[in-house]
């Protein structure tokens, strides 16, 4: 938004911060409990960030729609309506993610077990922070907007008393008018909402379009089933290196000259031996 009062930059930053807090909390708890930290766990923050940002968008979208559905326009009523709409979706997605990763802890591989423990616990903390910390941030941001305060300085914005530069920085335009108030109309009229409501929705619900979607999904499902039957276990280590890496040439020579000897066998001698 161009309006420096209704701008939600800090709200988005706090949504990302809630994901970071979830990562710190889960990692700290697992390390405190003595769960080994393996290299694959370093990829967990990216998964948590994706889920946390998704939950953040769900919360913000429900908040913007709450102005039309809540019986009252006060913060308490709107936040209650926001949780009524968003909490179910956030809870279900979090529950499925947590179950998926905690089931992975049954594996016999210690590295995979540690990764699933760290990530599953992080999903739990991410859910807790979204419904507590981020909800509180939404309420504080609404209070700031109602007070007509700037999104950076949180100072009261004066209208029509300063220069064009001041109005552009503090109001969003050179016009000497009050910033757009937060109403049900301004909250719901988002360009993406208009597109999906007036254009994409009617297009997708057409008779022939629905038939085409079913046919495309059937073709996709058939291709996916066929692809699953063609999957084979194993991994080619060449795919893990760059094309110009010396590792590629090493494995090529290894297959060319030493493949006939079979796998390597290593012997560990624990006693004292005169190797000479």
UniProtKB/TrEMBL annotation:
<keyword id="KW-0325">Glycoprotein</keyword>
<feature type="transmembrane region" description="Helical">
    <location>
        <begin position="208"/>
        <end position="227"/>
    </location>
</feature>
<feature type="transmembrane region" description="Helical">
    <location>
        <begin position="9"/>
        <end position="32"/>
    </location>
</feature>
<feature type="domain" description="SSD">
    <location>
        <begin position="1"/>
        <end position="140"/>
    </location>
</feature>
<feature type="transmembrane region" description="Helical">
    <location>
        <begin position="115"/>
        <end position="140"/>
    </location>
</feature>
<dbReference type="Pfam" id="PF02460">
    <property type="entry name" value="Patched"/>
</dbReference>
<keyword id="KW-1133">Transmembrane helix</keyword>
<dbReference type="InterPro" id="IPR051697">
    <property type="entry name" value="Patched_domain-protein"/>
</dbReference>
<protein>
    <submittedName>
        <fullName>PTHD3 protein</fullName>
    </submittedName>
</protein>
<keyword id="KW-0472">Membrane</keyword>
<comment type="similarity">
    <text>Belongs to the patched family.</text>
</comment>
<keyword id="KW-0812">Transmembrane</keyword>
<dbReference type="InterPro" id="IPR003392">
    <property type="entry name" value="PTHD_SSD"/>
</dbReference>
<feature type="transmembrane region" description="Helical">
    <location>
        <begin position="86"/>
        <end position="109"/>
    </location>
</feature>
<dbReference type="InterPro" id="IPR000731">
    <property type="entry name" value="SSD"/>
</dbReference>
<feature type="transmembrane region" description="Helical">
    <location>
        <begin position="44"/>
        <end position="63"/>
    </location>
</feature>
<dbReference type="GO" id="GO:0016020">
    <property type="term" value="C:membrane"/>
</dbReference>
